[in-house]
Design brief:
heterodimer; A: mainly alpha; Helix Hairpins; Four Helix Bundle (Hemerythrin (Met), subunit A); 2 domains; 70% helix; 1% strand; B: mainly alpha; Cytochrome C Oxidase, Chain A; 16 helices; globular; binds copper (II) ion
Amino acid sequence: MSQESLHAGDGPPDYYVPHSSAWPIIGSTALFVTAFGAGHFIQQSTDKVPTATGSYGLWIFLIGLAAVAYMMYGWFAQVVKESIQGLVSAKLDRSFRQSMFWFIVSEIMFFAAFFGALFHARVITVPWLAGASDNLQTHLLLWPDFADTWPLFLTPGGGLTQAMAAWGLPFINTVILVTSSITVTLAHWALKKNNRGALKAWLGFTVLLGAVFLVLQVVEYYEAYHALNLTMASGIYGSTFFMLTGFHGLHVTLGTIMLAVMLIRSMRGHFTPDDHFAFEAASWYWHFVDVVWLFLFTFVYWF
Amino acid sequence: MIAHADNIPSGRHPLVKFILRWLLTTNHKEIGTLYLSFSFLLFFIGGAFALTFRAELAQPGLQFMGADFYNQMVTLHGLVMVFGAVMPAFVGLANYMIPLQIGASDMALPRLNNFSFWIMPFAFGLLLSSLFMPGGAPDFGWTLYAPLSTTYGPPSTDFLILGGQLMGISSILGAINIIVTIFNLRAPGMTLMKMPMFVWTWLITAFLLIMAMPVLAGVVTMMLTDRHFGTSFFEASGGGDPLIFQHVFWFFGHPEVYIMILPGFGIASQIIPTFARKPLFGYASMVYATAAIAGLSFVVWGHHMFATGMPLATELWFMYATMLIAVPTGVKVFNWVATMWDGSMTFETPMLFALGFVVMFTIGGFSGLMLAVAPVDFQYHDTFFVVAHIHYVLYPGAIFATMAAVYYWIPKWTGNMYDERLGKIHFWTAVVALNLTFFPMHFVGLGGMPRRIADYALPFTGLNTFATAGAFLLGVTQVLFLYIIIKTVRGGPKATDQVWEGAEGLEWTLPSPLPLHTFETPPKVD
Ligand SMILES: [Cu+2]
C-alpha cells in the first residue's frame, strides 16, 4: 500500500484524511481470529465443555495475537511515518490527544466493573451470607457456620485460603510503580529541555522498573498459589484478587511495551521538545496504570 | 485545505476494486452506509427470530419448537436487535451526518472508523455461529443473568462473551471517534450551543458509550472466569453473589437504553422544526435535558432489580431517582409539542415518523414510570408488561426515529426523492401493526403472563393471537421499507439541495446527491 498522492496544495495540510488503509481490516480480522482461537482454547483447556478436546484453539489464538501485534506495528509505523512527513497538523494532534484521554476513561470504567464487584462482595454479600440485614434465616438454613471476615479465609462452601500480606512484595511494588511515575515525568522534562541523554536514561529506568514490577508480580502469584493456597478458585477473595491484579498486570505489561517502544524511538532520534505526542500518550497511560495500582493496593491488599 | 491520500492501486479487476473500496474505505459517508446496511440486515435477522417465537406464541401449548429453542430465539432476538440493529443504525447516522452538520470534512480518525465498523460483522459472526454449535445458542435472555449464563449456559456462551467483547471494542472506538470529531472538527463559528440537536444528543450518547461499554466488557469477563476458571463472582458458595452480576450488568444496561434513545431525541428535534417551519422551541433546555437524562442514567440501574430484595433505602433511592428522569424527558416532549404550536405544519413521511415517535415513545415513557414505582413493580416484574414497555420505547422510539432519519436525509444521500405515497403506507401500516403487536402485551402482562416462557395459560390466547398477527404484519411493512429504499437509491424525482422547504443546517447547503468529499474547506458559520 504505497503510492501516496496528496491532492492538496503545498505545505502541511490542515487535517490529513487518509483515503483508504488496509490496517483496520487486517486488525479486525486479527481480532476475530484471536477471539475465535481464545474461545476454543478456553473450552479445550478447561473442563466446562467435556466435548472440546484437542489443542488447535491455542495455536489459532497465538496466530491471532501475532496478527494483532503485526497490525499495531504496521498501523503505528504508518502514523509515525506520516508524522515525520509533516502531515500531522496541530488540529490532528489535538484529535490524537483527546482520543487517548477518552480511551483512558474507558479503561478506568473497565476496572470500575471489578471494583464494583469487590465492594459489593465486601459491603453487602459477605455480611448477608453471614446473616446481616434481614438474612438470618437464609444464613441458618444454608451455611450456619459461615462467618463474616475479610479477607474471606473460609468460603461458605468450605474453601480455605490465606490472605496476601500488604506490606511485603505488594508494598515494594507500590514503591516501584510510584517511582516509575516520577521517572517517566523526569524523562518528559528532559525531553522538553531537549536533553536527549537524560531522556533516554530516565525512560530506560522507567522501563526497567516496569519489568521489575512484573517479575515481582510473578513471584507474588507463585507464592499465592504454592504457599497461601490463594488461587482464582479460592472464593470471592481470590476471584477479585486475581481479576484486579491480573488485569492490572496486563496493563503494566502493555504500558511497559509502550514505553519500551518510546525508548527505541528516542534512540532513533524521534520526538522534538514540542512535538512528542506518542511519548506523552504512553506516559499518560503509565500514570493511569499507577493510579489504578494505588486503588488496588488500598482496597485489595491493605484494608 | 484537507489532504487526502489515495492508495487503492489502479488497474485491478472492477470487482476486486469494489470489494477493496468497501473494505479499506475511510470515508465517513461510505462507512455510514456500511453501518446502516449492516444494521438493516441484522434488523431482518433479529425480526426473523422474533417472528419465530411469535409464531409459537400464537396459540398456547407447543406447536413449532421446544421450550429451549424458544429461549434461544428470545435471547438472540434481544442481542441482535440491541447491539446489531439499533446501535449500528445510530452509529451509521452519526457517521454520515455529524461531519456534514458541523462542517467537517470527515470523522476525526477515519482509519479507526473503518476499524470500528469492520469489527462488527466479525462480532456478530461469532454470536450467530452459536446457533450451529452443539448445545445450541445462548438461551438465558439478552440480560445474560448468572447463574443461567455461568453454571447452566451452553458451550456457545463463550462465543457470545467473546463476540460481545469485540462489539464493545467497536463501540468504544466508535464513540471516541464521534466525541473527538464533535469537540475538535467543528467549522469556525460552530459553537457548542449552535450545534444541531442530533450532534448534541450524539455527543452525550458517545459519552454514555465510553462510560458503559467497558462495564459490560468487565461483567462478561467475570462470566467467562466463573464459567471456566473457578472464580466465584456470581456464586454464593464461594462468597459471591448473582446480584453482583445484576448490579454490574444494569450499571451498563440502563445507560445502554439511553444510548438507544438519545440519538432518536436528536432526530425528532431536527425533523419537527423542519416540518413545523419554526425553530426548535427551547433549544438550550433540550441540551440540558439531554445531559440531565444522561447523568441520571448512571444512578437508576436498580429499578431493574426491585424484586431481588435490595435494602429498603436502596429501593427508595432507585425509585425516586428513576421517577426524576420523567422531568427532563417531559421537558423534551413539551418542547416538541411547543415547536409545533402555531407552526405551518405539513406531514411528509419523516414528519409522520417523528410524530409517531413522540406520541408512542411517550406511551412507553409512561409505562416506564409505572414500572419505576417499586411496590407495583413487584407485580409487573418479569411479565409481558415489561416487554410492552421496552418495545414501546424501542420500536416507535429508536426504530421509528431511525426510519424518520432515513426518510429525512435519503434525498440528500441519493439525490432522489423517495416515493411519498409508499412512505405514508409504510408509516400507517407500521403504526397499526406495532400497536397490534405490542399494545395487547400490556394487558396480558397485567394479567400475569410471564415473559420468556414458550407456553401460557388459556385466557391469554386471544390477545396473543392478535399480537402474533400484528408481528407478522410488522415484518411485512419492513419489507416495504426495504423496497422503498432500493427504489429511491435507483431513481426517482430529483431532490433539490435544500430538499425540505423548512430545513436548516449545514447539510442542506451541500449538493444532492452528496459528493464523496464535502467541506474540504470548512464553511463559515455565523
Ligand atoms: Cu433502566
